[in-house]
Amino acid sequence: MPAPRRHGGHHHHRSFTSPAAASGSDGSHTVLLGLFVLTMVFVNVYFFVVFRTPVNAGGAGQLPIDGEPGHRDALHNGRVDRHLGVNEPSHKKPVIPPRNNFTPEQPPAENPVQRIKPEGFVGGPAVPGDDYGLSVLAGRMTSADHDFCSQRTHVCPRGQVHIAAGSGKDLAYVCVGGRAAIKATGEANRGLNVLTMNEDSGRVTAIRHFDTYSEPETDFVDFIDSVNLGRLVVIVTLDDGAYQFKSEGRRAAHAIGSSQVDSFNFRGTWVVIGQKGLSVATKYEAVSPSENYKWGADTTVNECVPLNGNFAAHQTVTKEQFCATYEGYSDLCSHDLPALVPAPPGEPQAAVSFPIALVAGNRPQYLLRSLASVLALPGVNPDMITVFMDGVNPEPMALCNVFGVRAVAHMKTKSTSTMAKTFQNADMIAAHYFMTLRRVFELFPRSKYALIVEEDLEVSPDFLSYFSHTMPLMEMDPTVLCVSAWNDNGYKHVSQDPSMLYRTDFFPGLGWMLSRALWNEIMPKWPPCCYGWSWDLWLREDSQRKGRQCIMPDVSRTFHFGRRGLNVDNDHFYNAYFANHNFNTDPNAVLQPITELLPSNYDAEIARLLQKATPLSHEPGATPCKDNYVPSGVSGNVYTIWYKQKDSKDDKNLAAICSCFKMWDLGVRGTYKGVLRFFSKGNHILAVGSQSEFARLHMPSAIQPLALRPD
């Protein structure tokens, strides 16, 4: 048969048909049309079943995350995750999909959502048959994966979704509403496996993997920073994810409400379900630290998680729930403590913007008293308060939730020292303090100062105004090492003036203000474990102090009430050295001008006092231990006691004087250039060492300095 002739473009096109076709009836055309329609139906059904990509208002092929225009949950460093099904501009480099070790997908024989949701399942998306977006984001899951998750799922109340999450050496998984979202094994999935969810609908918005064993934490931090506020975030770990997971990664974890991430160490396991921007600790977290480089135990979280924007509200433990669970809180449980009532706003003051680090162990009754006093401060911002715990302790964690404050748990410190227990305790305290001081400045990167309080300290009502008043001195005077709220010699019978401030060569601690500049200076030199170093004794050494002084009050702004602890372990010691301390209770106490504390002005004031002072008896046999050594019946006078020294550091005779006046005598504290200031019977006393620069200028020639202890 001759070939068909081709006609020019301007002629009508005529299809070539065989003679049989050409002679066929209209019925043959109907058959062809029917075959064409059936073919198209088959193609559409195939693509729907295999790819299961829903079509939303935004058009076919778009990721049905929330139906929100311009949704950015899949963004990472300005890019869009290709594996999430989002069109990416051609000039951007595609993001490599996660290296998930999933079993290749098998075409499902039935709707897996209908198969795995337990009977009576409620909560989550209201759309019938919705699978939380997992058909797109975790489309390579198999029926076996879903069966694995269905065994870990139970019915949740309406408005909640069940999440089962687990971490371990060989397996990490996340199940959402009974569907498998993450099931990770093998080296390709080592590290952190992360899932984000819409906080209202429960739909999964992103699934990411970060190998924080072999790669820096940067990508993880950038991803968490880019996640929308309010999003739910689930993190599970496989194999090791802590080796390259440093401070910035842990800061990002705190941003979703993690309180236990600091206990996550090399070869440990960690699971958390949090929320971006959560200001309190999430309830849904578990960690199993490694000990001696052994693998941590598998950890799981299996919970009904509230949706519809109610996640944050469910993290707070009510007072009623706490009191029903724990014993020993009659004051809290019988009536509202002042801290449970909003504190008065107070006058604007600088210290309100300072972070407050509350250093805690596992003494929840102590923590209650301390935290209540801090939260009762006028103008205090609870968001600036963080409780740093040595180890994961459920009871104090729950207590923090009652008060709605952030809690951060460090890995419980253990000393490997073979020295006595006292030195081992010093190692543990030093390590806990190091992690606390480091973390508080990481959590508040713009803060120049932080206030450090311990769980066995009650703070005075003018605590914030005290530090607001003294902070400018640290700005103007480089010779100020710190400001402390504590006076070791501030007992009721030897302190009386709430307005008076002292300079001291001693670091008092027990409620103090630390500058970021000082922390940056001492952090690289912090005493290492495990040599029995006490961190505060180390800070008092000349090599750290470098001639600088601290500021302290005559009347303390903290009260040490802890009768039991690593350093205080019996009532006799507590009663002798802490119980009788004076404590300011006046919220409106007026402090002396800070310019009077500048070195030249302060030295001039001491010189003025010495010139007008009356020496007490220095006759042979005279002793301050006699009750009549300081005259009775008169007040407002200034007296001096000159004590003998071999050199400027010799303080054994001053220690004897402190014993006579029933002050701190376990090593002299609170002196400034050999001068100790205190009150007795309403009179101001200055005890001055014979080798002090003030003695060389102002000690009367006829005075024989007191020598109460033999050389």
UniProtKB/TrEMBL annotation:
Which GO terms fall under molecular function for this chain's record? beta-1,3-galactosyl-O-glycosyl-glycoprotein beta-1,3-N-acetylglucosaminyltransferase activity; metal ion binding
In which pathway does this enzyme or protein participate? Protein modification; protein glycosylation
Q: Could you tell me what this protein is called?
A: Mannoside acetylglucosaminyltransferase 1
**Locations of Basic residues compositional bias?**
1-15
Q: Where is this region: Disordered?
A: 1-24, 83-112
Q: Which family does it belong to?
A: Belongs to the glycosyltransferase 13 family.
Q: Which SUPFAM superfamilies match?
A: Nucleotide-diphospho-sugar transferases (SSF53448)
The organism of origin for this protein: Capsaspora owczarzaki (strain ATCC 30864)
Superkingdom of origin organism: Eukaryota
Which regions span the lipid bilayer?
A: 31-51
Q: How does it sit in the membrane?
A: Single-pass type II membrane protein
Q: Where in the cell is it found?
A: Golgi apparatus membrane
Q: Please give the chief subcellular localization of this protein.
A: Golgi
Q: Name one GO biological process term.
A: protein O-linked glycosylation via N-acetyl-galactosamine
KW Glycosyltransferase (keyword) present: yes
